Amino acid sequence: MSAGFTIDGRAIGPGEPPYLIAELSGNHKGELGRALAMIDAAADSGADAVKLQTYTADTITLKSDAPEFTIRGGLWDGRTLHDLYQEASTPWDWHPALFEHARQRGITIFSSPFDSTAVDLLERLNAPAYKIASFEITDLPLIRYAAKTGKPVIISTGMASESEIAEAVEAARSAGAGGIVLLRCVSGYPAPAHDYNLAALADMTARFGVPAGLSDHTLDDVTTIAATALGAVVIEKHFTLARADGGPDAAFSLEPHEFARLAQSVRDAHAALGQPVYGAKASEAGNLQFRRSLYFTRDLPAGHVVSEGDVRSVRPGHGLAPKHLDAVMGRRLARPVRHAEPVAWDALEGGAAK
User: Fold this and answer.
1) Half-sphere exposure (Cβ direction) of 246: Cα atoms closer than 13 Å
2) Element of type H or E holding 110
3) In whole angstroms, what is the distance from residue 180 CA to residue 5 CA?
4) Residues 208, 224: contact at Cβ < 8 Å?
5) Apex CA 55: angle with CA 54 and CA 61, to 5°?
6) Is-contact 165 157, C-beta < 8 A?
């Protein structure tokens, strides 16, 4: 598998905590002040990065109300592609202010370009990475154009076949991407958890030779936490200040307190994975003394032969381990012992069992 890489100095790859991306999408509702506030809220919620979408309605589709340009079903039923993208787009003249604000807040910002002119804009702003949306995974010229910058490329794989993913990875790799991550994604809004088939995460890593992550369109935290346990290195979740305020993606976006909860859960889940080690952990060291061990149950004189009822396996753990009970039975005492005295080898004639 390819080695990890960094975005803005943050290491990304196996062994690292998942990289958490708050996808702002069109939830700014066309208000620059709201977009700036979303960056603040994402930073406060524990996101590693905020991500924009850089397109205009005219760079992503054509203005037409023909049936093939009209959405049927789902959240956006009846809307034309052009109208939806017009509402959801982030004005290009906002980008400098958004990038500057994110940098002042100490949170990484990058974007999904939808054509080469968007890459050019983002390069002028020194974007540290590029995200390819699921719907653009078949746009190999766009992938190559972004990858030629030498920066990391994160590719969502919603709807994509194995061969389409392979072509996208090869396009990014051959063009010189400075790291590639594939995101398991379901391009449903919202998406049911069972469609994610997270078993594919390990398969994607093995099959395509790059780390895998998750773009989560479900309505809760379960899929993300499960993906973390399965080794996801990047987690992307849509973000909004308040679902009640509306917005194109609000229905399946997390509010700040929910994102903060998710961020903590993801980091706790990653920390809990740990390493395949055994034995007492630091948090358990103080409790070792309370494990069971052998204790004398009564006062006994020297020369007494230990028999049933003279010794029991009880807590705490200062005597011989319970596994030595058979070796103690029938032994003669080398000295007197007291009630509630831990059994030790020096109390027995001949000492430790051979």
Assistant:
1) 6
2) strand 108-113
3) 9
4) no
5) 155
6) yes
What secondary structure does DSSP assign to 290-352, as a single string? GS-EEEE-S-B-TTPBP-TTSEEEESSS-S--GGGHHHHTTPBBSS-B-TTPBP-GGGBTT-S
**Residue 21 near residue 47 (C-beta atoms within 8 A):** yes
pLDDT 10s per residue in the chain (354 long)? Answer: 556 899 999 999 999 999 999 999 999 999 999 999 999 999 999 999 999 999 999 999 999 999 999 998 888 889 999 998 888 899 999 999 999 999 999 999 999 999 999 999 999 999 999 999 999 999 999 999 999 999 999 999 999 999 999 999 999 999 999 999 999 999 988 899 999 999 999 999 999 999 999 999 998 999 999 999 999 999 999 999 999 998 888 989 999 999 999 999 999 999 999 988 999 999 999 999 999 999 999 999 999 999 999 999 999 999 999 999 999 999 999 999 999 999 999 999 999 977
